[in-house]
Amino acid sequence: MSTVPADYTHGIDPERALKYAVQRFQVDRAEVVEGIIVPSSPTWDHERAAQLVRRQIADRVEELGCVGGSGNLDLHGSPNWYVPDIAVVPEELAKGAGALVPDQTLLVVEVTGDYDADTDRVVKRRRYAEYGAPLYLLIDRVERSVTLFAEPGQLGYTRVDGPHPFGTSLHLPAPFDLDLETGDL
Known about the structure:
This protein is α+β, with helices and mostly antiparallel strands. The chain has four helices and 13 strands. It has a single domain (42-181), classed as tt1808, chain A. 26% of the residues lie in helices and 35% in strands. The strands form four sheets. Strands 3-6-8-9-10-11 form a six-stranded mixed β-sheet. A three-stranded mixed β-sheet has the order 5-4-7, covered by helices on one side.
């Protein structure tokens, strides 16, 4: 039996090690939420809801010179590494980037499922605000509602539009300036 020297972990940054591990996790998609690696495998219905939003914002995303996808967001200085359902980022920032930070986005969208609804409603909402994501759209399939959070700060979002029941048209403010139809979500 071998023993590990007491100073074996000396100099290792636990945040960096955790984020390194999740990036190499052998699943399609994994996040670190408050220090816990969370593998996720969205259902087709979950993906369908995200696709309906992507289709509605696609032209505006293109006009803005942005990329919309589900790339990695690193919340530096915290044990969090998120993979949102949709993030809209300027194309020049996306080119060559492995991960971005929430304040580099124009919009972050999370679609809840039975397994992660409270995480998206509470934890991610707080963290996205803390890390400066200007707009956070929560598609809550459990509650069948949509909520738009805006004007982030250290204590959370200061402007909340919703929750609105599915079927309500929700206005996405500048730079999008479009109405999102939620009836089919």
